[in-house]
Amino acid sequence: MTLEELRMQLRGQREENKMSNLSDIGFHAKGDEGINEMIMSVLDSAKEIRCDGGFYLRFSDSSGAELFLQGNTSHEMIGFNPHFSGKSRRKVALLHTIVRDTSELDGAFHAVANPDSSRPETGEFELVFDVPDFRLAKTGDMPHLAEIELTAFGSNDFKLFDSAESLVTAGGGWSEKSFVPPGLTELLSDPNVNLSMLRPIAKISGIVVEHEVRKNSVSGNEFNWLLVETVGGCVDVVIDPVYVPEQPRVGQVAAGHFWLSGRFL
């Protein structure tokens, strides 16, 4: 695949991914009417947070599910992002700020995980993660050291394996613990790359250390939460039960492609 073909593929998938991620935290909104109903159901309990360019309305559910609604300076609703407040904690060094073209309040960061103390621009691996309250980030000069909570939203290729051996046997280049952002190295090799094309996607595998079925108190829908130990530490995983072939168990190996959402602590 050429770099231009990769860019076109990523551009078309970004908004589709945001919609599908809602069901991973129990919001089964479909179409404009479903989205409007979802927004109205959380407005009364959402907390307003002012920022440059407008404001966020943060809804936090007891299940850990979160929605960040976006409004501009004219008090018009211009977007939203799902998130999940979990247990994961991860040290990163931010390398690049990524401004999205989907909304003036959307954004992400290109970073390295567990940065080297003497050379913070290097670390265990690189990643890109969206930030639901992007305009609240105070980063200063790069590289910028930070601690984040990181949530991985699952998709229809999510799988569970009873052992690392069964994962490897299944093929696909998996290992017991992996964290690989597909296409990131190729895109960054282009000196003229548009940073907004960098996707917050990672191919992740790791060991399930905790699991719970959570219930979104607004929608009444259940979703799965897993704490997965992978390269560089743990990540919170949330996924729609429709994508989970069996009840997850501690000690299993989880694997799949995930959309990444992070918040600064």
- How many helix segments? 4
Q: List the strand order in the largest sheet.
A: 8-13-12-11-14
Q: What is the chain-wise order of helices and strands?
A: HHEEEEEEEEEHEHEEEE
Instruction: Detail the poorly predicted runs.
Output: 1-17
Distance between the termini: 38 Å
What is the rounded Rg? 18 Å
Number of E strands: 14
Share of helix among residues? 10-25%
On the 0 to 100 scale, the average pLDDT is: 90
User: What percent of residues are in strands?
Assistant: 35-45%
* Largest sheet descriptor: 5 strands, mixed, barrel
Notes on the structure:
A hairpin with a 6-residue loop joins β11 (201-215) and β12 (222-230). The longest helix has 19 residues, at 3-21. The protein has helices spanning 3-21, 31-43, 164-169, 184-188, and strands at 47-51, 54-60, 65-72, 77-84, 90-99, 107-113, 125-130, 144-153, 159-161, 178-180, 201-215, 222-230, 233-239, 253-264. The strands form two sheets. A five-stranded mixed β-barrel has the order 8-13-12-11-14. The chain has a domain at 3-84. The radius of gyration is 18 Å and the shape is globular. The chain is 16% helix and 42% strand. It is built from four helices and 14 strands. The model is unreliable at 1-17 (pLDDT under 50).
